[in-house]
Amino acid sequence: MTPTPEHEFLLAAAPLDEVDDLVLAELRDLYAHHDPMPGDLLDRIKFSMSIASLEAEVAEIVSSASLATVRGTEYDRVETVTFASDGLSVMVSTEPSGAGRADVLGWSSEGLIEVELRERGRTRTTTADDEGRFTFIGVERGLVSFVLRRTDPEAPPVITPAIEL
Amino acid sequence: MGRFDAAAAAAEEAVRALDGLDDDEAHQLRVRVDITRAWTELEVHGLGRALRILRRARREARRARSPFLEALTHVQEGVVHVRVGDWGAALAALDAVPDDAPLDPSQRCAQYINRGLAHVGRADIPEATAALETARDIAAAHGLVDQEFKARHNLACLAFVDGDLPKALGRMREADRMEAAVSRDRARLDHAEVLLEAGLVDDARSALTDALAHAQADRHRLEVGEISLRLARCDLLAGDLDRARSHARTAQAVLRSRQAEGLVREAAMVRMTIDVVEGTRVESVVADLARRNAGATGDSPADRAAVRLEAEARLALGDPDAAEARLAVLGRGRDSLAATLHESLVRARIALARHRPDDAERHFVEGNRILAAHQFLSSSLDVRAAMALHGRRLSSSDVERALAGGDAADVVRTVERWRAVSHRINPVSAPTDPELTDLTRELRRLRRLLGDSEGAAATALAAQVAALEPQIADREWSLAAEGAAAETSTPLGADELQAAAAAAGARLVGLFESRGTVHAAVVTDRSLAVHPLGPVPDLVALVLRLRRDLRARAVLAPGSPMAAVLARATASSVAALDSAFDGLWPGDERVVVVPSGSLATVPWSLLPSLRGRPVTVAPSLTRWVRGPAHRASPAAQTVRALYGPGLVRTGPEVRAVLAAWHGGDPGDRYDAGPASSRDVVDALGGARVVHLAAHGTHEVQSPLFSSVRMADGPVFAHELPRPVASEHVTLAACDVGQFSTRAGDEPLGLSIALLSLGACAVLAAVAPVADDAAHDAMVAYHRTLARGTDAAQAWAGVVEHQPDAGVFCLYGSDWAAPHPAREGAAAGVR
């Protein structure tokens, strides 16, 4: 005897209706309350996918605070982050550049490397000069990360964790 | 309240209510309503309708045999004509009011105020003064606060027309404090006008932009037109021709819709000025102005401006004879600084077109003298610097003339003529202003609280700081110079500079910009030369790159893997910048550099080609030669050394500096802790040498708010004593050697302010400075200085051994301690 399909199987095969919407909404509220999604989860997923697709090394943040022993209060506010990975060090610093934007100034321990700036909706690329300086002008504030491609073709690219500009 | 639509509707309603009533009272009431509504009609529908209503009211007043109401119609007609800038018509209307008209004090005030305004418009100072003072006195005698406010504010406008900007700004502030229930919109426009004349174009623009937003929201069309007109003039002065054209176009359209012909003509003048500066449509400008100026007597400032512009346009078409003939009608008249300098420019260019360079130079020299004389009226460093903006076109033309002539001596003399004119004036002196003192004290308190706050409290404090800073600037702008103390000195010529170079064994290098290129004028005892160095943007990029490297280096955490990278990057930036000055200072003699505005942050002592050589950075060569000499009566307390909070090495540094001058062991000296702002001001007002070790900040946008941080908060350039008694000041802090320049190459900053106020020489840094490096360098410097070595030489020796200290440089003139160590009076550590 062929068993009669269970009621829920029938329901599952049917298109979503108002009751489904309600139940899903309640479930979402429940999780949002008791076990919310981490705010940076999407960025982390994207970041992991980038590492996977680039076969990149991940740089670590070496220091993010300026230990200002200089005679100017302004330097307490300078936002500077240093990354390091596999013998490559990179420091980026920001300067305000109009409403909601910043200029990104960088120095890397190797000259002539290719630097890619990943913003939310776009990427920009530049090449560091002989002394490792690079600049991105008028970057929209928010999370950005950098991908650094070294001149040695054997060296894997290095990706930095996302930082808030 | 300024709600013209509502007022017009209410007047309509009043007229309807009176419809059908035929008694005397109703007639008279109708006349009064018409007189009142003429004002709103002007705003809502324009001049024609306002005048028609007034004519009707006058007929009715005569019919009702009311001399009172008839006089009122004339007063109101005068008011309306003043509003649209038709001074002649306004005076005719106001003169029609009989002396014995039965007006009440308030109406008499209106009559005199508007008569005064019409005379102000025609620059007739005695008549305007008499009318406005009469209005002020009547208002004061009858307790008419609103009228008194207007009369006083207009007396401020009169000081402005008379060329006394500090007095104008001061009177405007006083009037503004009155508790009058008068809309302040007009007063704000006038204030912006004064700021513009002072060359404070950014401040004027910001005040006007605010006013424009309000006027647009309230649909005050006439006001929108007038504000746009003034914005166009701001843009023109700042050299932004595209924006000027757009604002002038708006102004013309709006003002035409209100039939404000006087103002429409002014807007047309601005548009034609843009055309002439740009060299577009010059033929049609000449045709339009020829029509306008036919038979002009050159009486009013507007007529005179039109005549000058026509002359400039004719010159641009290659007809100097016609240009000169046009100027001949001007004769002598009262003109603003901007107008006078424009005339000098046109006359100089006419002479150049006729190949009479000596005549041309005479006009340039005269324009320069007039500019300096105006700067000298103010004791505000801001206003002195800002005024140079009016000389921008004149100085560019003069320098281009000299460069084209190819005579190095002439180039040197010409560049020097326009360089930091405000620094040729003797040190700024003015009585201490209690209000300025109170305001800066409050700012210090707020800034200090702000430094310790976070979140909402910090936001609220930041808003309070933002509101207070313009008040301080405004107060400073209204300070007049003390007459006897200030005189302008003439700039030095090439021969005198060569003699000074020989006497000091120095090579003098003046860097200047012309048509987008940086040039160097080099003076030695035997030679004069001018070299082009390269495009301004290229040099600016090199300076910016070095500056960024230095800043990044300063914030490196100890042990950072980036230390070597940044050391390499900095060295390459320094080398690249040095090569831009290649060949300017061969040999090993001392060097005096006068940087152009774009090179304000160059650390000269850091350049390899200057390392170990005595270098002095001066606002101008004239200032370097004629800088304030040693004081006739040495201050009682010869050396003060003070330090601010928050740094480890400053206390020991201050003790060692005092030990250097007075002997003994630094460790023995009593340390009372970080000094207060009061201590700093006192030290600068009395001690011969002042050493300050503290956190420093240079404010690029508002250089007179640059500061060093003391125990009770920052000490601002705004509150330095006038004059500064100290001959030599060392600022062992970050950045405060930097200066900002507005158009006109007038430098402003903390070190530059000290020089303007009378210090002979200032040692300061243009970049971040590490606490320990500053300590070592400063102690070594003061030890050498105390032995009698001159400042530039002493510093060169320090940098030779501590190259990183090259971010400091000596500014001003050369200086040496007149009484080498050991004989100074006791000075305690603070």
Automatic annotation (TrEMBL), chain A:
Protein name listed in UniProt: Carboxypeptidase regulatory-like domain-containing protein
UniProtKB/TrEMBL annotation, chain B:
Domain spans labelled CHAT: 589-794
Pfam families (UniProt xref): CHAT
InterPro entries noted in UniProt: CHAT_dom, TPR-like_helical_dom_sf
Designated name of the protein: CHAT domain-containing protein
Protein's organism: Phycicoccus duodecadis
